[in-house]
Amino acid sequence: MNTQITETNTNQRQQPSQTSSAEENFPFFSTSTRKSRGKIATLPADKRDLINSLLDNGATYGTVVAELSKHSVSLNLQNLSNWYHSGFQDYLRRQDWLTQLTHLQEEAADLPDPSDPSLHQAVLHVGVLKIFQSLKSGLTTSDPVNEVRQLNALARLSRLSAQVKKQANAEANPK
Protein backbone atom coordinates (compact mmCIF):
# COMPACT_ATOMS: atom_id res chain seq x y z
CA MET A 1 0.00 0.00 0.00
CA ASN A 2 2.87 2.40 0.70
CA THR A 3 4.12 1.74 -2.82
CA GLN A 4 0.86 3.02 -4.29
CA ILE A 5 0.98 6.19 -2.24
CA THR A 6 4.58 6.84 -3.28
CA GLU A 7 3.75 6.26 -6.94
CA THR A 8 0.74 8.57 -6.72
CA ASN A 9 2.83 11.32 -5.12
CA THR A 10 5.55 10.87 -7.73
CA ASN A 11 3.02 11.07 -10.54
CA GLN A 12 1.50 14.19 -9.05
CA ARG A 13 4.89 15.92 -8.97
CA GLN A 14 5.57 15.07 -12.59
CA GLN A 15 2.34 16.62 -13.88
CA PRO A 16 2.70 20.18 -15.19
CA SER A 17 1.46 22.68 -12.68
CA GLN A 18 -1.83 24.36 -13.44
CA THR A 19 -1.94 27.97 -12.26
CA SER A 20 -5.01 30.12 -12.03
CA SER A 21 -5.09 33.61 -13.46
CA ALA A 22 -4.78 34.99 -9.92
CA GLU A 23 -1.54 33.06 -9.46
CA GLU A 24 -0.23 34.30 -12.80
CA ASN A 25 -1.02 37.92 -11.98
CA PHE A 26 -0.01 37.77 -8.33
CA PRO A 27 2.45 34.90 -7.93
CA PHE A 28 3.07 35.55 -4.28
CA PHE A 29 -0.64 35.05 -3.55
CA SER A 30 -0.53 31.33 -4.09
CA THR A 31 -3.87 29.58 -4.07
CA SER A 32 -2.14 26.49 -2.72
CA THR A 33 -2.64 26.05 1.00
CA ARG A 34 0.40 23.83 1.30
CA LYS A 35 3.54 25.51 2.54
CA SER A 36 6.94 24.29 1.34
CA ARG A 37 8.46 22.01 3.94
CA GLY A 38 11.68 20.92 2.27
CA LYS A 39 15.12 21.41 3.71
CA ILE A 40 15.83 24.56 1.71
CA ALA A 41 12.42 26.04 2.51
CA THR A 42 13.30 25.89 6.21
CA LEU A 43 16.61 27.72 5.76
CA PRO A 44 16.88 31.40 6.70
CA ALA A 45 15.84 33.85 3.99
CA ASP A 46 19.41 34.98 3.29
CA LYS A 47 20.49 31.39 2.53
CA ARG A 48 17.45 30.80 0.28
CA ASP A 49 18.18 34.08 -1.49
CA LEU A 50 21.77 32.95 -2.08
CA ILE A 51 20.57 29.63 -3.52
CA ASN A 52 18.03 31.39 -5.75
CA SER A 53 20.65 33.85 -6.93
CA LEU A 54 23.12 31.07 -7.75
CA LEU A 55 20.49 29.06 -9.62
CA ASP A 56 19.26 32.18 -11.42
CA ASN A 57 22.82 32.83 -12.60
CA GLY A 58 23.07 29.31 -14.02
CA ALA A 59 25.13 27.63 -11.32
CA THR A 60 25.13 23.85 -11.30
CA TYR A 61 23.77 21.93 -8.34
CA GLY A 62 27.33 20.93 -7.43
CA THR A 63 28.42 24.56 -7.36
CA VAL A 64 25.47 25.49 -5.16
CA VAL A 65 26.23 22.63 -2.74
CA ALA A 66 29.89 23.71 -2.56
CA GLU A 67 29.01 27.37 -2.02
CA LEU A 68 26.47 26.61 0.70
CA SER A 69 28.92 24.32 2.49
CA LYS A 70 31.10 27.44 2.95
CA HIS A 71 28.13 28.86 4.88
CA SER A 72 27.78 25.73 7.06
CA VAL A 73 24.74 24.46 5.18
CA SER A 74 24.74 20.82 4.18
CA LEU A 75 22.66 20.09 1.07
CA ASN A 76 22.46 17.22 -1.37
CA LEU A 77 21.46 17.16 -5.03
CA GLN A 78 17.94 15.93 -4.23
CA ASN A 79 17.38 18.91 -1.90
CA LEU A 80 18.32 21.24 -4.74
CA SER A 81 16.24 19.38 -7.30
CA ASN A 82 13.17 19.58 -5.06
CA TRP A 83 13.79 23.28 -4.48
CA TYR A 84 14.38 23.95 -8.17
CA HIS A 85 10.97 22.53 -9.06
CA SER A 86 9.07 24.31 -6.29
CA GLY A 87 10.55 27.22 -4.35
CA PHE A 88 12.85 28.40 -7.12
CA GLN A 89 9.93 28.47 -9.59
CA ASP A 90 8.00 30.62 -7.08
CA TYR A 91 11.06 32.88 -6.88
CA LEU A 92 11.19 33.20 -10.70
CA ARG A 93 7.47 34.02 -10.91
CA ARG A 94 7.89 36.67 -8.23
CA GLN A 95 10.91 38.16 -10.02
CA ASP A 96 8.93 38.34 -13.27
CA TRP A 97 6.04 39.99 -11.45
CA LEU A 98 8.37 42.55 -9.85
CA THR A 99 9.89 43.30 -13.25
CA GLN A 100 6.43 43.87 -14.71
CA LEU A 101 5.58 46.22 -11.83
CA THR A 102 8.79 48.17 -12.39
CA HIS A 103 7.98 48.59 -16.08
CA LEU A 104 4.46 49.75 -15.24
CA GLN A 105 5.82 52.30 -12.78
CA GLU A 106 8.27 53.60 -15.38
CA GLU A 107 5.50 53.89 -17.95
CA ALA A 108 3.19 55.58 -15.46
CA ALA A 109 5.87 58.18 -14.74
CA ASP A 110 5.57 59.28 -18.39
CA LEU A 111 1.83 59.96 -18.05
CA PRO A 112 0.59 63.51 -17.65
CA ASP A 113 -0.50 64.84 -14.29
CA PRO A 114 -3.70 63.07 -13.16
CA SER A 115 -5.35 66.42 -12.46
CA ASP A 116 -4.84 67.39 -16.11
CA PRO A 117 -8.21 67.13 -17.92
CA SER A 118 -6.49 66.02 -21.13
CA LEU A 119 -5.51 62.74 -19.43
CA HIS A 120 -9.14 62.06 -18.55
CA GLN A 121 -10.20 62.91 -22.07
CA ALA A 122 -7.57 60.56 -23.51
CA VAL A 123 -8.66 57.71 -21.22
CA LEU A 124 -12.30 58.21 -22.17
CA HIS A 125 -11.35 58.35 -25.85
CA VAL A 126 -9.45 55.06 -25.63
CA GLY A 127 -12.39 53.46 -23.81
CA VAL A 128 -14.86 54.60 -26.46
CA LEU A 129 -12.60 53.35 -29.25
CA LYS A 130 -12.24 49.93 -27.61
CA ILE A 131 -16.00 49.57 -27.23
CA PHE A 132 -16.63 50.66 -30.84
CA GLN A 133 -13.98 48.20 -32.00
CA SER A 134 -15.65 45.39 -30.08
CA LEU A 135 -19.12 46.27 -31.33
CA LYS A 136 -17.92 46.64 -34.91
CA SER A 137 -16.16 43.24 -34.87
CA GLY A 138 -19.54 41.59 -34.23
CA LEU A 139 -18.19 39.34 -31.51
CA THR A 140 -20.88 40.47 -29.10
CA THR A 141 -23.84 39.67 -31.36
CA SER A 142 -23.88 36.09 -30.10
CA ASP A 143 -23.89 37.39 -26.51
CA PRO A 144 -26.72 39.93 -26.15
CA VAL A 145 -26.06 40.51 -22.43
CA ASN A 146 -22.48 41.52 -23.13
CA GLU A 147 -23.59 43.72 -26.02
CA VAL A 148 -26.03 45.57 -23.74
CA ARG A 149 -23.27 46.00 -21.15
CA GLN A 150 -20.98 47.50 -23.74
CA LEU A 151 -23.69 49.88 -24.96
CA ASN A 152 -24.35 50.95 -21.35
CA ALA A 153 -20.63 51.50 -20.85
CA LEU A 154 -20.54 53.57 -24.02
CA ALA A 155 -23.40 55.74 -22.72
CA ARG A 156 -21.60 56.22 -19.38
CA LEU A 157 -18.37 57.13 -21.16
CA SER A 158 -20.23 59.67 -23.31
CA ARG A 159 -21.78 61.22 -20.20
CA LEU A 160 -18.38 61.37 -18.47
CA SER A 161 -16.79 62.87 -21.57
CA ALA A 162 -19.38 65.64 -21.56
CA GLN A 163 -18.71 66.30 -17.86
CA VAL A 164 -14.94 66.46 -18.41
CA LYS A 165 -15.40 68.82 -21.36
CA LYS A 166 -17.75 71.03 -19.31
CA GLN A 167 -15.24 71.13 -16.45
CA ALA A 168 -12.39 71.97 -18.82
CA ASN A 169 -14.43 74.82 -20.33
CA ALA A 170 -15.32 76.12 -16.86
CA GLU A 171 -11.64 76.15 -15.87
CA ALA A 172 -10.63 77.84 -19.13
CA ASN A 173 -13.30 80.56 -18.81
CA PRO A 174 -13.55 81.49 -15.14
CA LYS A 175 -16.43 83.81 -14.26
Q: If you compute it from the alpha carbons, what radius of gyration comes out, rounded to the nearest whole angstrom?
A: 26 Å
Dominant shape: elongated
* Average pLDDT figure: 77
> What is the percentage of strand-forming residues?
under 5%
Low-pLDDT stretches: 1-33
Number of domain units: 2
Distance between the termini: 87 Å
Helix content: 55-70%
How is the biggest beta sheet arranged? none
Element-level helix/strand string = HHHHHHHH
DSSP E strands, number: 0
Number of helices: 8
Structural class: mainly alpha
Quick structural overview:
The chain is mainly alpha-helical and 175 residues long. Helices cover 69% and strands 0% of the residues.
What does this structure look like?
The chain has eight helices and no strands. It starts with a helix and ends with a helix. It is mostly helical. The protein has helices at residues 2-14, 21-25, 45-56, 61-69, 77-85, 87-109, 117-137, 144-172.
Element layout with pairings:
Blueprint: H1 2-14, H2 21-25, H3 45-56, H4 61-69, H5 77-85, H6 87-109, H7 117-137, H8 144-172
List descriptors.
mainly alpha, 175 residues
